[in-house]
Amino acid sequence: MGLIIQKLSPLFGLSRITFYYYFNFLIALIFTIATYNIISSYMGRAFIAIRDNDIAAEVIGVNLPRYKLLSFAVSSFYTGVQGGLYGLFLGYLEPNMFTFMEAITLFVAVIKYVHIYGSHHTFCGRHHRRPRVGGRLDHGSSFCHFSAAGIQRL
User: Fold this and answer.
1) In terms of pTM, does the model score above 0.85?
2) Residue ranges per domain, the chain?
3) Fewer CB within 10 A of the terminal residue: the chain, N end or C end?
4) What is the dihedral of CA 45, 49, 51, 53, to 10 degrees?
């Protein structure tokens, strides 16, 4: 009981993996630009005011239920698009693919990211003066950080 999805066919003579990489990179870039534009708009200033102090935001005229619902809708849209990309990558979706342990894994990954890179109310996080390129690779107890300077063992 699942949904079979036709996979994307590679364009421009690229291999399937290379095409998926560039396609997902383009989607991530579009979402990053959209997020930056949302943060820079009136709506983003309302989100920031609610994040800092929701009572004070309501006092200065921010419609609290509206913007909380709007933030939930934007988050749901981003998550839905990523789920669609996951389905295009695998070619098959079913409800049992996303188990409780998968949810715990994603939750722990978010906590690790916030702990390592910080969340100091900026678009780039705590290390906004010297951004790191790449991500983290977690295999058991070894942590490697891939940066522009090379691989660092943490």
Assistant:
1) no
2) 1-96, 99-154
3) N
4) 180
